[in-house]
Amino acid sequence: KDLKKFKEYEKVFISPDLTKKQQEADKKLRGKLKEIRDGGQRNAKIKKGKIIKNENGMEVVLFSPPPCPVV
Which of 40, 42, 64 minimizes the C-alpha distance to 53? Predict the structure, then answer.
């Protein structure tokens, strides 16, 4: 967490390992974010598994994936 203090490491992030299903869901979410950004929403980002944008100080959800079926 202290890497942020150094200019050359300010864009380095450490992420936990994901299961195959989590990796697939994350890839789909990043693909959807790319589509949204290509459509003109440059300020869209992923936060807590949803694609959001800030509008007048409020977070607006642009995309929320359907819940995973329980097996």
Answer: 42
